[in-house]
Amino acid sequence: MLEIAIIVAAIAIGSGIALLAGGLVGIGEGYAAGKAVEAMARQPEMEGQIRTTMILGQAVSESGAIYSLAVVLLLIFTVVLPLVNRLLELL
Amino acid sequence: MEAEVLFYIHSFPISKPLLFTWIIMAAVSVACFLLTRDLKKVPRGAQHFLELAVDGIENLVVGNMGPEGKKFVPLILTIAVYVGISNIIGVIPGASSPTENLNTTLTLASIVFLVGHWAAIKKKGLWTWFKGFFEPYFFMFPINIAGEISQVISHAFRLYGNVFGGGILLSIIYMVAPYVLPTPLLGWFGIFSGIIQTAVFTLLAVVYIQVKIS
């Protein structure tokens, strides 16, 4: 029983650490958006193209956070929930 | 992460995403039939909206791929309309977005992947297309294959992760504060984020096809 509890706790901590990627991606995307605003202020006539390129770049750099989210969801839904159910049965 | 099965037709399970996909299909079909029944040279009423949508997607596709991309406009427009409506339908109480399920987004991403490669083979010929996997050096082959696979996965997971993550956050908020507070968050995750993710999914579909055929 203690082993299962340790596994669940370790996965919870690991999931939290994995989601730090979200924060880092947030920094990157904010930087990209800021640069896009600068470019738009300098050349307002290019606004549409700059916005498209900005969204595309942000979407691609978001992949890292999406991968970590996918890993966390997989861990929680396929490993933790069955373990927690078993733990509750044991109790 | 399996979808919840609502009922069975004979032995065929009907899950929630499938049911709402059918509802969206029916709604879009009826809307298309009603909107395109009598098109005028000078647009009036709902035809403005229709022309705005078709023109917008056509400008996006042709602007990215050039005139040869015109044949992809129906596909891209279909993806945009389907993903857009299925993201926004989650705002309705009791309804759930089909895009909340990984199978839906993975199917859409696979369609884009297959169409891109089919168009590349058709344009460049089988041999040139196959040789493209060995660029710039022949030992880069495994890396190129991994890149192709991870492209489908990241394309699918981006939409799924955003919609599903928003859904999880909302359900937690519902548990903590069931009144008033969820409303602005529903607007944010359901409508604003849904529209942004639709734009991103469509734009990436266009870019992925364009990269493969160029």
Would you kindly provide a written description of the structure presented here, covering whatever features stand out?
By secondary structure, chain A is an all-alpha fold. Chain A is built from four helices and no strands. Chain B is mainly alpha-helical. Chain B has one domain (5-213). Chain B has seven helices and two strands; from the N terminus they run E-E-H-H-H-H-H-H-H. A two-stranded antiparallel sheet of chain B has the order 1-2. In chain B, strand 1 (5-9) and strand 2 (12-15) form a beta hairpin. In chain B, helix 2 crosses helix 7 (182-213), helix 3 (73-88) packs antiparallel against helix 7 (182-213) and helix 4 (102-124) packs antiparallel against helix 6. The chains are: A mainly alpha (91), B mainly alpha (214). At the A-B interface, helix 3 and helix 4 of A face helix 6 and helix 7 of B.
Radius of gyration of chain B: 20 Å
Beta-strand percent range of chain B: under 5%
Termini separation of chain A: 9 Å
Oligomeric status of the shown chains? heterodimer
- Give the number of DSSP strands of chain B: 2
Rounded average pLDDT of chain A: 89
DSSP summary, beta strand count of chain A: 0
Number of domains of chain B: 1
> Termini distance of chain B?
37 Å
Q: Which class best fits the helix and strand makeup of chain B?
A: mainly alpha
Estimated structural class of chain A: mainly alpha
User: Which two protein chains have the largest interface (Cβ within 8 Å of the partner's Cβ), and how many residues from each?
Assistant: A-B, 15 and 14 residues
The poorly predicted ranges of chain A are: none
Q: Specify the number of helices of chain B.
A: 7
Q: What best-fitting shape of chain A do the alpha-carbon axes yield?
A: rod-shaped
Major beta sheet summary of chain A? none
Task: List SSEs of chain B in N-to-C order.
Answer: EEHHHHHHH
